[in-house]
Amino acid sequence: MTMEYRFLGSSGLRVPVLSIGTATFAGGNQTGSWGDIQLDEARRIIGIAMDAGANFFDTADVYSDGRAEEILGRAISGRRDQVLIGTKASFRGGAVGANDVGSSRFHLLQALHGSLRRLGTDYVDIYYLHGFDAFTRQEEVMSTLDQFVRDGKVRYLGCSNFSGWQLMKSLSVSDRYGWSRHVAHQVHYSLAAREFEWELMPLSLDQGVGAVVWSPLSQARLTGKVRRGAPSPLGSRLAVPTEVTDVEDEGLLFGIVDVLDELAQETGKSIPQIALNWLLHRPAVSSIVLGVRTEQQLVEDLGALGWGLTSSQSTRLDKVSETRRIYPYWHQQHNFSERNPGPVVAAGS
User: Fold this and answer.
1) Which residues are part of the catalytic machinery?
2) pLDDT digit string (tens) for 98-128?
3) CATH fold of 5-348, please?
4) Where do the structural domains in the chain lie, given as residue ranges?
């Protein structure tokens, strides 16, 4: 197993195709159902990941009210120059003040300095906006982020959960003034949720914005542990009534799992490895964030590297996971594909 590295969008930064998420670190009232990894286990997981070449770690200021950042910072102490760190701001954490949310200059300054302190570092490699702030002008947002880069506190910029027009607006403002622009977009994407392909994937390819994928196994639905007619596994985040779901069509989901079962028999690989491998070969994907809860899960997920599905196997997954697109994407797909091809078609041309 050899780690593959890809450029992060149009930047010169190369990142491992598998990266490690820390939403499972520290528990807490916001992410306790996702995991409760404490310092000693975090060190072991990070050690396994780094030995495999997965030296890119993803976190956010709101994960466990900042404690995930603290654990990550302590776990990589003495090895800061060997790792890449991405963290996020814009969401409201524990504070309730009027300015303790969003992407204003006030809040971003406050958030970045807090993250740097908790991480025990003087810079982060990628700084993401966790969501789009519709109340703050993009000139204020992007000029603030550009200054972070100029000050050496941030190396590269990214965003997360933006719609197409929001990302394009941010990029156009940066281009207009010659400011640093987003080179990464952290997105929700899996076999069970392919909406990213409709607009954001073509935009990413056109504008040189690398996709960093979150929830690649659809909140554990693509692990083989979730089955027709069976309750959610005990201890799973799916068993938490308040957990937000990303899958509404169970027929679609279990049809995908059926094909994953078949491919597992054909390839000798596990269901999670196949689901991750499919994602690794999609256009625009720079890295996939693994939200592991145990060392065993990490070792299994790393097995997605070093092999590939055949064209026919990949096509079977494409077909079983396809859903009807909303307008105008269905119209573009069926009525003007000659001059408006999908990104998968364009990538193979």
Assistant:
1) 63
2) 999 999 999 999 999 999 999 999 999 999 9
3) TIM Barrel (3.20.20)
4) 5-348
